[in-house]
Specification:
With 201 residues, the chain is an alpha+beta fold. Helix content is 16%, strand content 60%. An eight-stranded antiparallel barrel has the order 1-2-3-4-5-6-7-8. A hairpin with a 2-residue loop joins strand 5 and strand 6. It is elongated and about 65 Å long. The two termini are 38 Å apart. The N terminus is likely disordered.
């Protein structure tokens, strides 16, 4: 929580020194994102919060709308009680992990913020999710994976600190269509964006 507070304070400072921004049709950007991946529902009964990291790219189709692609990697460790149970049953130390790799497309809406360095956005997307469970014991490992379709939606705010660079925070909810109950998790993190064309207005 302290680290998140430091990030938010830094972003608040940037909002006073950043450049007013207005994107135009045809502008492009790409970026990196990283932070926490938090399981929800039944998923959270077995696995701990983990880390996530990804990339994204956007193309402005209008002044307030963009389409883009994104990919995200998430990794979680099983909760201690589950690792302990597996270790007891196997008679040796066992560690279980879960990874999700998501790749898909999205649409993004950025409401107008006249003469402001802030770029708030709302995003909705869909894509494929590769889900992989892995168990390691005594130097050996076994894994099982499958790919499923899913949806996601989120929001955030970026701040333009110069004509080619933005920094911000964002979060997204993911709903993966697995057999039985859907797998759900939430990503929250810091975004570093790079603009290929800069401000045109």
């Amino acid at each position: 929580m302290r680290k998140l507070g430091i990030v938010m304070a830094a972003l608040a400072c940037l909002s006073f020194m950043a450049f007013p921004v207005s994107a135009a049709q045809g502008d492009m950007s790409f970026g990196l994102t990283g932070g926490m991946a938090m399981p929800m529902g039944d998923f959270s009964d077995i696995f701990k919060p983990g880390f996530c990291g990804g990339v994204y790219g956007d193309y402005m189709i209008a002044e307030q709308f963009a389409i883009g692609v994104d990919g995200m990697y998430n990794q979680h460790s099983a909760k201690d009680e589950w690792n302990d149970l597996l270790s007891f049953l196997a008679g040796q130390t066992v560690e279980a992990t879960w990874t999700t790799f998501q790749f898909g497309g999205h649409v993004k809406w950025m409401p107008p913020m006249k003469d402001s360095p802030a770029i708030p956005y709302v995003q909705a997307g869909a894509g494929m999710y590769n889900l992989k469970a892995k168990v390691e014991a005594g130097g050996d490992s076994a894994d099982d994976s499958e790919s499923k379709f899913g949806f996601n939606g989120g929001l955030g705010v970026d701040f333009k600190v110069n004509p080619q660079f933005t920094i911000g925070v964002g979060g997204a909810f993911h709903h993966v269509l697995t057999e039985g109950d859907a797998l759900q998790y939430f990503n929250v993190g810091v975004n570093l964006g790079f603009l290929t064309t800069g401000t045109t207005k």
